[in-house]
Specification:
Elements (H helix, E strand, L loop, with lengths): L1 H17 L18 H12 L6 E4 L3 H5 L10 E6 L7 E7 L5 H10 L8 E5 L5 H13 L5 E5 L20 E3 L7 H11 L11 E3 L6 H12 L7 E3 L7 H11 L2 E2 L2 H31 L1 H18 L7 H5 L4 H28 L9 H14 L11 E3 L2 E4 L7 E3 L7 H14 L6 E3 L10 H13 L24
Parallel strand pairs: 1-2, 3-4, 4-5, 5-6, 6-7, 7-8, 8-12, 12-13
Antiparallel strand pairs: 2-3, 9-11, 10-11
Helix pairs in contact: 2-4, 4-5, 6-7, 7-8, 8-14, 12-13, 14-15
């Protein structure tokens, strides 16, 4: 035994002296991604010992990446879209029709966060499990520029899709079509959209078509819309929703009474707001007594700098000289900036709300809309200036930020239409720009539906010259030539 040990160490020393000692086996953590997805994917698959490495293909045409995939891939592959001809500028990755296991997800978790221009992940029927979904969610959170995720045809036993749209999520576009989402999944998604204490602030488009949400699930989604002020487009088409669920959705679009919990939270916010207004005034007063000379000199410097940059604002300079503190001068400029940005989101929302399946049109537009929504969202929904007290209740003006709602292919009757008509009339020119109600259980010539069509045709920027909405079989807007 001793001789064998001595022989082993002797051979090891000889290998070290001769420089032929074997290198330690590499792991995925040791691999340094180059930014070239095709190269990195192949090399990492080899490192992890993937037996059959999926191929990487370039996108052939724009329609291939944007269209909903309806056929299985003959061979496992990653389809990628480049922002330009540079192979290091991958903008989108599409996987469809083959099962993505933990090993492939481990490879993607190393590659995707390293792509500086990666904006869209499209996965269709990839056989996700709760375990692989958890890994995918972590990868999504690490991709700093990823804004659009499509997980169509991906049912999960625990229905934990809501983890993709938490309060800290940066996604602006999420599609979960045909994923067998039921009441529980809808409840979790509704809570992720908003609660009394928290709300998602970035998601602009949510597609939940072809699921099994039903009336109870629609009620949960409506609860999430009460205090959410970021979502612009929502599709609930083909979800077995009847009049009860539709009534909940219609209610939140118009004036509704705050619950006891919401009233209590509103009072807390009002008290906190009053305290925050008192404290800064005391601080500024103390500063003005302690350093009057430095304040005057700095304010005059501010005036000179502003006059040098803006010669057209000479009339405002005398007023600015009288300000006691430079900090207050800076604060007075903020409302002007907010007013300029305030004009953008409504027009931008109108463009996007008219055609939700193209949202966001590009990463630049998606980021722009997201930023403007954050600028405008200075008023907390529970502190909306339109809130009134009447009949012993606190009435909220309703959600007027949602611009597109698709309820096609459900079980709505004329009873639901009357509620939607009332909400639309209360919204006036704001609120919904598009409401899809095709293929429900009411006659197309009923009075309520005709009135809704008339209102929406006047509000929808895509149908200014049409007498009614023209849509495809799924309730999405369809472009047609004028008759």
């Amino acid at each position: 035994m001793r001789k064998r040990v001595e022989k082993y160490f002797k051979e090891k020393v000889d290998k070290v002296d001769s420089g032929i000692e074997e290198e330690p086996s590499k792991t995925a953590d040791d691999y340094q991604c180059s930014g070239n997805l095709e190269l990195d994917f192949t090399e990492l698959c080899k490192v992890l010992g993937v037996k059959k490495i999926p191929s990487v293909k370039m996108k052939q045409s724009k329609s291939v990446m944007d269209s909903q995939m309806t056929t299985w891939s003959s061979e496992p592959c990653l389809e990628i879209e480049l922002d330009n001809e540079d192979h290091d500028s991958v903008k989108a990755v599409k996987i469809s029709g083959w099962k993505v296991d933990e090993m492939i997800l481990q490879v993607l978790s190393r590659i995707l966060p390293s792509l500086s221009n990666f904006q869209c992940l499209h996965m269709w029927r990839v056989g996700l499990t709760d375990c692989t979904f958890a890994s995918l969610r972590n990868t999504v959170s690490l991709c700093s520029n990823l804004r659009k995720v499509v997980l169509d045809g991906s049912p999960l036993p625990e229905q934990s899709y809501h983890l993709l749209i938490g309060e800290d999520s940066m996604l602006t576009d999420l599609s979960l079509r045909n994923s067998r989402i039921g009441e529980e999944g809808a409840r979790l998604i509704g809570s992720a959209l908003s609660t009394v204490h928290a709300a998602n602030k970035n998601l602009l488009s949510l597609n939940l078509a072809f699921n099994s949400i039903g009336d109870a699930g629609a009620n949960h989604i409506a609860q999430g819309l009460r205090l959410n002020r970021s979502l612009l487009c929502l599709s609930l088409s083909y979800n077995q929703i009847g009049d009860d669920g539709a009534a909940c959705l219609a209610e939140v679009l118009g004036p509704f009474a705050l619950t006891h919990e919401e009233i209590v939270e509103r009072r807390k916010l009002l008290i906190k707001g009053e305290q925050s207004m008192i404290q800064p005034s005391l601080v500024s007063l103390a500063d003005s007594h302690e350093q009057p000379l430095s304040v005057r000199s700095s304010s005059s410097l501010d005036r000179l700098n502003k006059s040098a940059k803006n010669t057209t604002k000479k009339k405002d300079n005398p007023k600015k000289e009288e300000k006691p503190a430079p900090g207050q001068a800076a604060k007075k400029e903020d409302p002007k900036v907010a007013k300029k940005d305030d004009k953008v989101p409504r027009s931008q929302a109108g463009k996007i709300g008219g055609k939700d399946k193209n949202l966001p049109v590009s990463e630049q537009e998606g980021t722009f809309v997201c930023q403007t929504v954050e600028v405008v969202e200075t008023v907390i929904p529970l502190l909306d200036p339109g809130i009134v007290h009447t009949g012993g209740k606190v009435i909220h003006p309703g959600n007027t930020c949602l611009t597109s709602l698709n309820l096609s292919g459900n079980k709505l009757t004329e009873q639901s239409l009357k509620l939607f008509l009332s909400s639309l009339e209360s919204q006036g020119e704001s609120g919904l720009l598009r409401l899809s109600l095709n293929r429900n259980r009411f006659p197309s010539d009923c009075d309520s539906f005709l009135k809704i069509q008339e209102i929406m045709s006047l509000k929808d920027p895509l149908n200014k010259n049409n007498t009614g909405q023209v849509e495809d079989e799924h309730g999405e807007p369809k472009t047609t030539s004028a008759a």
